[in-house]
Amino acid sequence: MAKIGGLLDPSLNVPPEYVPLIEKIIRWYDNQIYPVWGLGFFHTTRSAKNANKERTFLKEIGASWQSIGASARADWSSASAFLGLNGYQLFTSNYSYRKKQSLDLPGLSNQYHQLFALRLLDDGSWPDNSIRYDTIVVTGPIDLSFNYRLVNQGVSPNSQLRCDIEAHYFEAGENKIDTATFTLNYADDNWHSYSNQFLVSDRFYFHLIVSFRLIDYPSEVHLDNLLIQHNSDDILREGFFFKAGKSYAPVPLYRKEGWVFSYPLGSSALSVFYAG
Q1: Quick one: the chain helix, strand, coil %, rounded to 5?
Q2: What's the N-to-C CA distance of the chain in angstroms?
Q3: CA dist 124 → 118, 121, 162 (Å)
Q4: The domain spanning residue 257 has which CATH number?
Q5: How does pLDDT run across 64-118, given as a tens digit for each residue?
Q6: Among 38, 65, 181, 215, which has the highest number of CB atoms less than 10 A from its own CB?
Q7: What CA–CA distance (Å, rounded) separates 270 from 116?
């Protein structure tokens, strides 16, 4: 059955009383071939599909991606590698977000984070602002690495980010614990990287807890690219990343695996924010 300009081909000599029914059937099949193309309303026709494609940022983003040069494209690829994206995917997400927020275009890549980072804020009214990640069945040693920025509030030069590692194991009929603690205090408003290895080699741990907390007031820390590994396998690879129109959703603690936040995510004490 041919269809021209939304009408049945007159050469088919379809009786007029059947035309509305046949048109209805054709529209139904049209909608199956060209499904929803929007969040607020349905794009169910070919013309709407083409118009929607013209309204996206992809053509503009593609031209900008080509204009930034090979060196900048390589930087975007390097910045995106932590989350398993390619450079163009990260550039597209960054460009779209900046355009929607009326920021300068295009943005610059950053080797310490992708788009978003976790912010912990303690101004004295939030006691024990901390986050922690639990997991089970780990063989030592573990490798811990992350990027962070400790923001200098201009009041206390002693603001610190403390990390505590607690690993439970069973030996000689007893439950025992290995622990490690370190603090970071580069309060210079710049991003830094940290990496180290902890716990006893080849020791089996049935419960591992890695926590971060702020020390001294006031202080603010930004975290990203958190990676916990054992035997080169990922236990946690966290970039606090989410696509436009969606929210970051941490895996909540369940049967000793997942995140525990001392305050609700999205509160003034703890939030995921656009880091540039």
Answers
A1: 25, 35, 40
A2: 54
A3: 19, 9, 17
A4: 2.60.120
A5: 999 998 999 999 999 988 988 889 988 988 888 888 888 888 888 989 988 888 9
A6: 65
A7: 13
